[in-house]
Amino acid sequence: MTVSDPTPTPTTSASTTPARTTPTDVLVIGAGPTGLTLACDLARRGVRVRVIERFAAPSVASRGKGLQPRSLEVLDDLGVADTVLTRGAIRLPVRMITDDGTVIDREPITVPVSDPTTTAYPETLWIGEFDVEGPLRDRLALDGVEVEFGTTASALEQHADSVEATVETPQGPDTIRARWVVGADGGRSTVRHALGVQFPGFTMRDRWYLGDVRLEGLDHGRQYIFPTDLGMIGLTPLPTTDLWQWQSTTEAGDDAAQPSLELYQQMLDDHLGKDRVTLQEATWLSLYRANVRLADRYRVGRVLLAGDAAHAHSPAGGQGMNTGIQDSWNLGWKLAAVVDGADAALLDTYEDERRPIAASVLEMSTEKMHRFRAGATDGAEGVDRGLDGMGGDDTTGLSLRYLPNTLAFDRQPIARAPYATGLRGRGFAGSTFDLIRGPHWTVFVFSDDASDAHAFDGTPENVHVHRIGAGAIEDSQGHAVARYAAQQGMVVLIRPDGYIAARQTVSSAADLLSFVRGVEGGGAHRQDDTADRADSSRPR
To answer: What is this structure's pTM?
Structure first.
């Protein structure tokens, strides 16, 4: 793929222009969890979006196999968490079998968050990546958007107000004119290469065999670890299928044998003895070497990068798919606002916020991988110690904070809005997340005085105001007051992605609304005609 620099006027010659040119607001290149999450968020906001994927059909490879709590919260907001949960499993019991036949049953690798009341999803979900993508594609289809499979972008030409993407489709060449383009096309991103964005970092020496296999001889309700001289063989059941994900260490270097069902069977036979476990079929095989890399830029003109196209991780801690999903959650509302008239400088906060997160996640996952490999050849005890370090609160995504920037009204670090249950009001019973859910800003007014909520009369339609206090949404158990450290008259402004933009008092209402209008630009000026919504106890 090639990308030309932005120019004031189009420069594509007639001789090279494909016959058709179709417009859209946003073109997403790549239909993995990152691209699909972004497309779902944009489509539900009324943004015209197209999603292209170079493969001819949906992926059948498990690849990433764990959804962390924060990612599940994102999928909840999109309305697909319940479906995703039916396709995964939590707290898989682990059975280790040594080469002398000793069986060791141990606690699951994943652990719940230290305080399970801080989220509706306190457990990591074991799930194949294809079972995340399926529900997201279904959600996208509800807004009339279908993934365009077998479609490859071969060139991007940037102009002052658009990007022209030359694409090859099953029906022939096409040109898509998009106002913005997002490359969510994986670690080998052609978009990133075409932009000339550097991807500094390193490649780990260790190589891993991966794959999805069918087998006989193991209980599909548990995870298996077989410590070996080189580290381990791991087999994780994929809940909605009869498949298992294979993951095993091998010798460092470039001379490792190519993956095959026969090779994997020989590994099992060497460890367990012949005919203990029989591999029947492989639907995906790979020889993988982890990259630890971070793009030096997330945006070039009207083209942005997200997910693995912007950062590559070791598999330790299960961060790759999750960081990409959360990239998209940060970018979606900002991109929609810019399409709707906000200043394009808003998109610079995407890199400002998400790139430092990716850097910290890379450091954490790399340290976990090094710790695991340091003890992996020490038999069952070494493998056990390494597995113990894979989970923890640092993997959940719940505690990540963005550095202060122009989206922090009070110039404080930007934290996720707390989850609190036990709220009750007229026509409503639920949690703070039930009030936040949806493509809008949220204002919580913690006050027993009904007049305080009226300070927000006349808010734009994309700002939902809820008074938490006597006569409105009552916090009888005090969970919300405690989690938000709220005093009477305190106001909390929450961004569309569920992060806190400000903690102020009612007297700051006009300034807060002005701040939202300044961020959202033209899109925030639409007024809601619903009377007296500020004291409502029903989420809208």
So the answer is: 0.91
